[in-house]
Amino acid sequence: MSSGKILVAQGGGPTAVINQSLVGVVLEARRHHGIQRVYGARHGVRGIVDEDFVDLTRETSQNLERVAATPAAALGSTRDKPDLAYCREMFKVLKAHAIGHFFNIGGNDSSDTVRIVAEQAQAAGYPLRCIHIPKTIDNDLVLNDHTPGFPSAARFVAQAFAGANLDNAALPGVYVGVVMGRHAGFLTAASALSRKYPDDGPHLIYLPERVFTVDQFLADVKAVHERLGRCVVAVSEGIHDAAGQPILAQLSKRNANDATKDLERDAHGNVQLSGSGALADRLCDQIKASLGIQRVRGDTFGYLQRSFLGCVSDVDQREAREVGEKAVQYAMWGRHGELRDGSVAIQRSGAYAADYTLLPLAAVAGKTRTMEDHFISASGTDVTDAFRLYLRPLLGSGMPEPFRLRPSPVPRLLRL
Amino acid sequence: MSSGKILVAQGGGPTAVINQSLVGVVLEARRHHGIQRVYGARHGVRGIVDEDFVDLTRETSQNLERVAATPAAALGSTRDKPDLAYCREMFKVLKAHAIGHFFNIGGNDSSDTVRIVAEQAQAAGYPLRCIHIPKTIDNDLVLNDHTPGFPSAARFVAQAFAGANLDNAALPGVYVGVVMGRHAGFLTAASALSRKYPDDGPHLIYLPERVFTVDQFLADVKAVHERLGRCVVAVSEGIHDAAGQPILAQLSKRNANDATKDLERDAHGNVQLSGSGALADRLCDQIKASLGIQRVRGDTFGYLQRSFLGCVSDVDQREAREVGEKAVQYAMWGRHGELRDGSVAIQRSGAYAADYTLLPLAAVAGKTRTMEDHFISASGTDVTDAFRLYLRPLLGSGMPEPFRLRPSPVPRLLRL
Fold it and tell me: Looking at chain A from residue 8 to 67, which residues have their Cβ under 8 Å from any Cβ of chain B?
């Protein structure tokens, strides 16, 4: 059937459950007599080019189970985005090691890498099967109901806003929490799942799917603060103006001498959004300067939302495990008609069960899903019931729930 | 014995377990026939001056148990720091409602308030007993082994750094995490409890108990980065120079046109440290500018570390409950010699059990504990084993633990 050697790699931002998928591949491979060796590439595609492999065949199933429950990427990850020349180097190494199957766990960049490597192998007549295994907290892979990693990050965001809302109710003021997500607002929208009582925050949710204007933002905050005496706001790091310019860049430019004017940009010229508290701070500055509200506090959830040890959705855990298992099954049993290579996808069945399929790589690779219109309220600053129904089952069991004292005022004696 | 009316209030920054202490007071009071009514003051001492009380006698024990498990302050909190005139107003209201016992849950400001109110009552010959119930994530109350709220916040910080360390190992670079604590470094020091493997971060820990210099910081980070190819740093928001000036203020001044130059100050002229990502951002700017390291990311844990719903120490929960229960017992049974008023304190027995005592208010009020020297390593950038032994039992049961793949390199075929 093949050389009996398979290779697995992890790419992009770590998640709470990407190691579940890795372990799903390794443990499922142990069932298949056609597989003699399972190699792991250290730091993703970079480890392939560098020929930096570990032999996962030698790992105990006991330790693999513990690693599966550990967040981040056990093999190491990379931000490298391979071009054609890079993929050719990768293919050279895969061929030298007689790798028969290549599994790459990651987001849309990773799926695109899988697509190019598969094309290289086919052009060279080399019998390599390439499978992309989905992973991203951004939930932005097309044709997937959702992506592994998103539910756990969404749970962190919901639990964080539930607590921030309680804190804000105890010491009133304005609270701005900035959530990851450059193009897709799913993770920011998850903040809505923290609400229980009618006046719970977040009272305003700003998504990259809608145009952001500072003036409207200030008017929205003012209205909520006047109504409730406090205001909790969820903001996506990817909010932008009508021209698509990030609000972070716009606010930094307003303040021409700001230390953040030299914004870090990645290889694609995108402004670095994560790893800094600048957006929350600039938005708080605006509120203080324009609305005269005394207590204005900003938090940037940063890397905690994707790495925090001990906040995970059990539904996410088992699905992440399954996409790894299914990837090996698809590769070894070659179902799904003529599909040789592909991208494993999660599909929703009923309310709620998960099922899996294998999609053509070209259907997923390099494409970005954003929040569908029916998930966003008409106001543009909230989600719909459809979104709540969509997300709730993914958050898993044991979601902590806040409780309040019921009102029972004591009649005043002095101030009548 | 008394009028049969008691009043309880919550003050200062919310914690994960302050409602346990509130519920400890309310449920313990139900056992005492001398108590007919339990009032709660809304938003701390502010609610006393405003005569804004709720009748907790009417709350169900079922809901009280749920509220106990909810973070933040169920009665609402306040940042008001009563002076003599303010305390006289409070006393006037307590007298009007014939309150026999006043319980105030909070940190050293709250204990000082209790002290002044008790003095007022004694001077007026009014039979009021005043008990301070300890609470603060800063762990800075003197004569307490530790304070309720600190263990849960410490657990959050440890879990956050465990995840941040894994993330940093997967995508190497420098990571700076800023933790709350103006004068006391206990909470920042808790980051050390996240380490498991020998090269785990945080590799450097900066506490307000030691003088911080930017040059030494940069040299420290450079050395770790050269050794490990990565570096995780825990920084207290309260780090300061030899003159006691906050580093945030110093770094903002260096950058004379910085948007943060107008630093917010509180009533005491202290620079506002929390609720902004400025310190992490400025430290990251320094590292990028001076060390030429590409991937430098900063997080500020902000309000998440004291409010996050679903990260709590069970030891902290039960101790916070007990200090509330003990407060009522001390008040009703008047043990501890002649002590009429007092501050409940936690004492450590063996390894590990907790016990309680009642201290004179003057012994605790307005005093600040900082980390003892034997808890800080000679380098000044780490903690000692004594600190690890001190903190570990407080973090409670079920601490999540990270696991790694064991090394098993595959021999190279192309790059020999």
Answer: 10, 13-14, 39-40, 43, 50-56, 58-59, 63, 66-67
Active-site annotation holder among A80, A109, A112, A138:
A138
Q: Do B298 and A276 touch (CB under 8 A)?
A: yes
pTM for the model: 0.96
Gap between the Cα atoms of A131 and B28, Å rounded = 61
Are A287 and A218 spatial neighbours (Cβ–Cβ below 8 Å)? yes
Instruction: Please write the tens of the pLDDT for every residue from A301-347.
Output: 999 999 999 999 999 999 999 999 999 999 998 765 667 899 999 99
> Is the ipTM above a cut-off of 0.90?
yes
pLDDT in tens, A48-92: 999 999 999 999 999 999 999 999 999 999 999 888 899 889 999
Name A335's Cβ contacts closer than 8 Å, sequence gap at least 6: A329, A358
| A151-310+372-395 under CATH 3.40.50.460, yes or no | yes
Could you give the residue ranges of the DSSP H alpha helices within B18-83? 18-29, 45-49, 61-68
Q: Name which residue leads in pLDDT, B229 or B256.
A: B229
Could you give the 3-state DSSP secondary structure of residue A299? strand
The H-or-E segment that residue B114 falls in is helix B108-123
Smallest CA-to-CA distance from A149 within A139, A159, A158, A161 is with: A139
How far is residue A370's CA from residue A372's CA, in Å, rounded to a whole number? 6
Are both B5-148+311-364 and B153-308+372-395 of the same fold?
Answer: yes
Q: Is B140 a catalytic residue?
A: no
User: Class assignment of domain A5-148+312-364?
Assistant: alpha beta
Q: Give CA torsion, residues A108, A109, A115, A121, to 10 deg.
A: -150
The residue ranges of every structural domain in chain A are 5-148+312-364, 151-310+372-395
